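ASSEMBLY PREDICTION REQUEST
Request ID: AP-0331
Submitted by: J.K., bench scientist
Number of chains: two
Total residues: 757
Priority: normal
Notes: Please return the full assembly, not individual chains.
Input sequences:
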Amino acid sequence: MKLFKKLIPWLLLAFAFFVLPAILSQFRLNLFGRYFSLAIVALGIDLIWGYTGLLSLGQGIFFALGGYAIGMHLLLVTQNDFTTGANGLPKFFENYGVDNLPFFWQPFWSFPWTLIAIWLIPAIVAGLVGYLIFRNRIKGVYFSIITQASLMVFYHFFNGQQKLVNGTNGLKTSTTEIFGMVVGSDDAQIVFYRITLILLPFAYLLCKFLTSGRFGDALIGIRDDEARLRFTGFNPVPFKVIVYLVAGGLAGISGALYTIQSGIVSPQYMAIPMSIEMVIWVAVGGRGTLIGPIIGAVLVNYLRSLVSEALPEAWLFVQGGLFIFVVVLMPDGIYGWFKNGGFMSMLAAFGLAKKSATYPKVDMDEGYAAES
Amino acid sequence: MELIFSQLLDGLSIGSVLLLAATGLAIVFGLMGVINLAHGELMMIGAYVTYVTQNLFRPMGEGIFELYFLFALVFAFFITGIVGVILERTLIRQLYGRPLETLLATWGVSLVLIQFIRSVSTSMTIGIVVAVVLGFLAQRFAPKKLKQASFYPYLSGLAWLVSAVIGFLAITALSGSKFLSKPWFGPRNIDVTAPKWLQGSWGSIAGIELPGIRIFIILLSALLLAFVAWFLTKSVWGLRIRSVTQNRQMSNCLGIPTDNVDSITFGIGSGLAGVAGAAITLLGSVGPNLGAAYIVSCFMVIVLGGVGNLVGTVIASMMLGIIQSIIGSGAILIAFPEIPNPSRAVIEFFATTSMSYVLIFIFIIGFLQFKPTGMFPQKGRSVES
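STATUS: Completed
Returned structure:
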C-alpha cells in the first residue's frame, strides 16, 4: 500500500507523458503543457514560502527573465521573412532604428549559453535582490511588499525600453524556428510538452533533495522561528539567499517553457496579478508539501480555462472566491487537507468513517468544553 | 524656475493623494499587522461613490450641483468605511495573527470587487440579495438539534452553496430583461466633472498660477491628516487604538474591547481610502483598475516611512510624489539646460513616469540598507522588531 502511494505520482506522470498526447486535441495538450510548466514555478514558490516562510510576490520577474532569454535566442537564430529585419536582426529593432544588437544580447546567439542563461540569469538576479533584502533582516510582510515593488520596477522597465526588449509588445516566438521546426507548429509543441514533463520531475527531485536533510531542517527552522535559529548560532542569510536563488532559477526555467508553448513573452508576465496567482496555486494545492504546488498549478489553471471558456465574466469571481475559501477554510490546501486527515474527519462528522483518536479528555469532559 | 515650482505643486498633490491612501493603510497595518491588498479597490469604491453622487446631484439644479463634491467626500468616507467594517467582521477577523494569509485573502477580495464594479447590474444585485438572505435564513431557522450535530459546519457550508446557486439562477433568469441586466458602470472608465469652483486657477503667487484642483487636494489631505492625528492622540478611541497597537493582550486584559477597536480602525482606514478615491476623480477619469496603480506606491510609502508613524508617512509620500513629478516629467532638464552631459544622460534615462518608479525603487532599496525599518521605526524590545 505504501509503495503504491509512492508510485501514484510517477504513474500519473507516465500517463501524462504517453497517454495524454494521444487522447487530447492539440489545443488542449498545449494548454496542459503550459500548466505543467507553471507547476515548476509553483514548486519554487513552495520552496521559499511553504518551507522557508518567505512569501515572495515577485516570482514573475524571474519567470519573465527566463522567457525573454529563450525568446531572444529564438528571434536571433531564426532567419525568415516574418521575424528578421533588413539588418539581420529581429524585426522590432528595425522599427526603433537600432542597428547594432545591444551588448547584453550578444551571447544569445549561442544555444548552449541560452540554455544556461535561462536559469542562471534569473538565479543571479534573485540572489542579488535576496541578499540585499535578507541582509537587513527584512522579513514577513515587508519582504512581500518589497518583492512586489521590485516586480513593478521590472515591469515598468521592460515596458519602457522599446529599443532593448520591444517594450509592451514583448517577443513573439511562435513564428520562429528551432532545429528546423517552426516553434508554433504542432510537432514542435509536442516535443516541448514532453520536455516540460521531463523537467518537472527533475525540479521536484531538486526540491525534495533540498528540503530533506540538514539544509531542509534549517529552512523549516527559519520558517518556524528565525530568531531562535539565530540564537543557536546559525546565520539564516545564506540559507535564505540560496533558497531564493534556487526558486528564481526554477521560475526562469518555467518561464522559458511557458514562453515557447504560449508563443510570446511580454511584460505582462511581470504584471502584479500573475505573481500573486502563482502564490495562490501553491496555497490551493498545499504548501509545505511538494506534490501540492503541482496539483494546485494544474488544477487552478485548468479551472481557469474551463470557466473563462464558459463564462468569461465569472472567472474573477470564482478566482477571488477560491482564494478566500482556501485561505480561510483550507489553510493546508487540497493535498494538505487530505494528508492531514481533513477528509477523514469530514467523513467522520457524517458518521461515514471512524473518528480519529484524539485526547479523550477533551472530547468527553463537558466541563472543559464549556469553559473554553 | 516656474516650471520647477509648478511641478513641485504637482508632486505635492500626487503625494497628498498617496498620503490619504497610505495613512489608512498604515494605521491598519500598524494595528493588526495586516497588509490590505484590497485597499486600492476601496479607493476605487470611493471614486465610484463620487461618480454616483455627481449623477444624483445633477438634476437638482446648478446651485446645489456645485456643492456635490463636498457631499461626495462624506459619502465616500462613510460608504467605504462601512465596506471596510463588513470586510473586517466577516473575513479579516478569521485570519488574525496570520498576516501573510490575510494578504492573499484580501487579494481575493480585491478581485471580487473589481469584477463586481465591472458587471454589477440590477439583476445581479437582486441575485446577491436573494443569496445572502436565503443563506442567513437557513442559518437562522436551522433546528437546534441540527446545530449541535458534528456535521453541522459542513451542512451550513452546503446551505450557503445552495443559496449561492439559487442567487446565480436568479441572475440568469433575470438576464433576459435588457433593463435589469444592463451594467451600471461597465468595464469602461468613468468621468467626474469637477465643480466650477475647483476648475481653473485660484490666484497666483509670483506669477505662478495655483491650479484649484491641486491646491484643494493638498488642503484636503492636510485637513484629514490633522483630523487623524487629533483622533489618534486626543480621543478616547484613539487612545484605545494606540494601546492595542502597542500591546494587544495587555489592552485586552485591561478591558479595552479589542474587537471593536479592530473594526473601528479598519473602518477609518477604509474610509480614508474612500476619500483618496474621491480625490483621484478630480485628477482624471477612473476605472475599475484604479487600485492597482496606487497600491504599490502606498506600500512603498509605508516601507519608507516606518509603521505607525504619521510624520514618516507624510515625509515619505511627499518625497515619492515629488520625485515622480520632477524627475519623471523631465522638468529638471528643461529648467536647467546647462547640466553637463554624463549626468544629463542619467536624468534623461529616468525621465519617464515608468522609469521614475525604477529610480524610486533603487532609492528605497538603498535607503533600507541603512535603515531597514524605515525612517521612524517603532521602538520596542522584542526580538522580532
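REVIEWER COMMENTS: The first helix of chain A runs from residue 2 to 23.
SIGN-OFF: pending second reviewer
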